[in-house]
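Predict the holo structure. Ligand: NAP.
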Amino acid sequence: MTVRRTALVTGASRGIGRAIAQRLAAEGFDLTVSARADRPLKDTAHELRAYGNRVESVSADMADETQVQALADAHLERYERLDALVLAAGMGAGGELADYPLHRLDTMMTVNLRAPFQMVQRLLPALRTAGSSPSGLGAKVIAIASITGVASEPGLAAYGATKAALISLCESITVAEGAAGVSATALSPGYVDTDMTAWVHDRIDPAEMIRTDDIAELALAICRLSRHAAVPNIVVSRAGGPLWRG
Ligand SMILES: NC(=O)c1ccc[n+]([C@@H]2O[C@H](COP(=O)([O-])OP(=O)(O)OC[C@H]3O[C@@H](n4cnc5c(N)ncnc54)[C@H](OP(=O)(O)O)[C@@H]3O)[C@@H](O)[C@H]2O)c1
């Protein structure tokens, strides 16, 4: 009997997470998809079932520890293993370093770092199960970080710090769990054309931004690598200008 691979995708109702969920569904993964708002998430889950896979949707706010735990537990109740954990839910709030509100930093740290950390902790046994499976593909954690986590950008000190921490977490996962077949990759793009980048449309044409499909293509490639290859971080820069900017 062929064992079906499973993935859990946060931030799956739109943008980058949704594009990745689509690629994984087309690749034959059974899925748990998550976001806060129930309706768009259910619509996404319905569309993904067109590929003939099992797709469960679980609403959860990554700012709430109890809901993060419930999301991980919901996946474990439905599936015995986790081949790909895609951490795409995230938030960004710009502001100058000098007077950035600390409560905003706290919330962003919780959503962008603490929740991914908690998800990985809770789901490690299921990742290890997939990591040692005979397919030889191992288990992957894929976290959507940001180019600002690699090269800082004016007005994005807090956001960049959370994403730098997420990149570091990915490295630590691979170091700690690589022997068990579990590795992590941060995908660190510049501006991608999604709802999140609507606020910069006055200075950057969305047609010149990275496409969600570009990031999804990389996520899929990571999932196809053998357990012997570890890819810590992939920076994706916007074409047509300096390399190290959003
Ligand atoms: N777009 C870019 O230029 C860009 C560049 C670099 C990195 N990133 C990162 O890529 C990731 C995805 O961004 P995107 O551009 O695809 O954004 P998006 O289109 O706004 O989608 C964000 C997704 O995350 C969910 N989400 C947001 N806050 C959440 C929370 N507190 N708890 C649970 N789910 C939450 C949203 O659904 P609900 O609102 O219903 O919860 C939605 O499904 C983020 O981590 C972002 O920081 C984006």
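The pocket of NAP is lined by residues 10-17, 35-37, 61-63, 88-92, 111, 144, 146, 189, 191-192, 194-197 (CB under 6 Å). Residues 111 and 167 are 14 Å apart (CA to CA).
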